[in-house]
Design brief:
Layout (H helix, E strand, L loop, with lengths): L8 E6 L16 E2 L2 E2 H10 L5 E6 L3 H11 L4 E4 L6 H16 L4 E6 L7 H14 L3 E7 L8 E4 L5 E5 L6 H4 L3 E10 H9 L14 H9 L2 E5 L12 H21 L3 E2 L6 E2 L4 E2 L4 E2 L4 E3 L3 E2 L4 E2 L4 E3 L2 E2 L4 E2 L3 E3 L2 E2 L4 E2 L4 E2 L4 E2 L4 E13 L4 E13 L4 E2 L4 E3 L9 E3 L4 E2 L4 E3 L2 E3 L4 E2 L4 E2 L8 E2 L14 H4 L8
Parallel strand pairs: 1-4, 1-6, 4-5, 7-11, 12-15, 13-16, 14-17, 15-18, 16-19, 17-20, 18-21, 19-22, 20-23, 21-24, 22-25, 23-26, 24-27, 25-27, 26-27, 27-28, 28-31, 29-32, 30-33, 31-34, 33-36, 35-37
Antiparallel strand pairs: 2-3, 6-10, 7-10, 8-9
Helix pairs in contact: 6-7
């Protein structure tokens, strides 16, 4: 984009509460596919390279502003006053930015509740605006059911006359299928003139930004650019709409991965967020949820009924009916079923965390196995070791989390308890039921003596007549 074509400012409107969400947090901080509405819109707008990126806030303004700054530090926050309406929000923004904007340029204005708004749609709008040399351009789309949207009213020549909000529309106007998406491009001079004369003479008593288009029309033509993908401009006002949009988006994500060589047996029950990466010939079985920055290498098999959160899965690994969070799984590792890997684990190639195993900050060496019914926390296990079922590394003393070090080639008997901090050398064998409290050198065998006592022909006291059943 040349300097002459540069976008002078982008104004994102995020002042509303979003009451239909029935939520304690602002609507724009709700998420779709792992990122908030606001984050998604800000990213799409920022890719156009505006000289000024501004955000208008009001409801829980500091909370929204804090989130916005975490997404993009260069954002300029503008507070809307008590006068309601999108038109008033733009008035506040222009007043706050007047010293930076000057008198000429192009301004993009967009709502913040369209989580699938993308760079392609916005760039198409900007290119259309410049090619038509209109004073203002509105982004529109056609809907089978336009309920709730402002209608685009055109004259006999097809030019935009005005936008009529649902509550102010006549019966004839309500039948119009072309709707306003709440995304606009204005020449700055036209916008300054159009925004100055707004009033609140409407059903809702608000300053409508849509009214500025009528004023802009008196200064020149107002164009309309139809979004090529209706899904990209679909707004979210309540949880029902959010679920519908999330499902439609997820279906596209699954289809994209399948076309790239990933097997997804049941896209209807598989959820994949946008930042997930999946290698060719990987298989995703039904009931899987892939979140965050998860990466899955070639030929891995995930599922069924598995959740991965910021996990890194190696080639040909197998993760079944498990939850893996912020952990690295090496090549040909087997996880599950019913395994919970909390953050901080690193399982090397060929290792295993079997059924009903929980791990946290554990490092498991190549070919080492924790087959079942164990808790391994704050532990390092070397190569080629085997941990018997029911083993626990007791890492917490009530104040500190302590480390357990287990060497390579170790055979841990069933039902062992390692009381950290403790270190066990290489090629050690531990007896079943052992409690390991002290350092064990290499090539040793260690066990805890536990005397077994037996009372023959024993019966409960009440059977022996020592007490009545009512006294039990």
């Amino acid at each position: 984009m040349s300097k002459a074509e540069a976008l002078s400012a982008a104004i994102i409107l995020a002042a509303g509460e979003g009451t239909r969400m029935r939520s304690a947090k602002p609507k724009v901080l709700h998420e779709l596919a792992g990122r908030t509405f606001l984050n998604r819109v800000m990213d799409a707008v920022d890719k156009l390279g505006p000289d000024i990126l501004s955000l208008v806030v009001r409801y829980q303004g500091e909370r929204v502003a804090e989130a916005a700054r975490s997404y993009n530090q260069r954002v300029t926050i503008v507070d809307q006053d008590d006068i309601p309406g999108t038109g008033r929000a733009v008035q506040c923004a222009l007043n706050a930015l007047k010293d930076k904007l000057g008198h000429h340029g192009t301004v993009l204005i967009t709502a913040s509740d369209m989580p699938l708004l993308d760079e392609r749609t916005l760039k198409g709008l900007m290119d259309f605006h410049r090619s038509q040399a209109d004073g203002a351009t509105v982004l529109t789309t056609m809907l089978k059911d336009p309920t709730g949207y402002g209608r685009i009213i055109r004259d006999q020549d097809g030019q935009v006359l005005r936008i009529v909000e649902q509550k102010d529309a006549t019966g004839t106007e309500l039948a119009v299928k072309e709707v306003n998406t709440s995304v606009y491009v204005f020449d700055l001079e036209v916008l300054n003139g159009a925004i100055a004369g707004l009033n609140d003479r409407n059903v809702q008593g608000e300053f409508y930004l849509t009214d500025a288009l009528e004023a802009a029309r008196s200064a020149g033509r107002v164009g309309a650019y139809a979004a090529p993908d209706p899904l990209s401009v679909e707004g979210v006002n309540d949880r029902v709409q959010l679920a519908h949009l999330a499902k439609a988006h997820n279906r596209r994500v699954c289809e994209r991965w399948m076309r790239q060589g990933v097997t997804i047996l049941d896209p209807e029950s598989t959820w994949i967020e946008d930042d997930v990466m999946i290698g060719r010939d990987a298989t995703i079985l039904p009931g899987c949820f892939l979140h965050g920055a998860t990466s899955i290498a070639e030929e891995a098999v995930i599922g069924p009924n598995t959740t991965l959160i910021d996990a890194r899965i190696g080639r040909a690994a197998r993760v079944e009916r498990s939850r893996v969070q912020e952990s690295t799984i090496g090549a040909e590792v087997n996880i599950g079923p019913w395994t919970y890997l909390r953050p901080g684990n690193d399982l090397a190639a060929g290792s295993k965390a079997g059924a009903f195993v929980e791990m946290k900050k554990a490092s498991i060496g190549e070919q080492s196995k924790v087959p079942h019914l164990s808790y391994i926390g704050d532990t390092c296990i070397g190569q080629g070791s085997n941990v018997g079922g029911g083993t626990i590394t007791a890492n917490y003393d009530g104040v500190h989390k302590n480390r357990t070090e287990i060497g390579g080639g170790v055979h841990v008997g069933a039902g062992n308890l390692f009381v950290a901090p403790v270190s066990v050398g290489d090629n050690v064998t531990t007896g079943a039921g052992s409690v390991i409290r002290h350092e064990v050198p290499d090539d040793a065998m260690v066990y805890s003596e536990n005397s077994q006592h037996m009372v023959e022909h024993w019966r409960p006291a009440w059977e022996r007549g020592d007490e009545s059943p009512s006294e039990r």
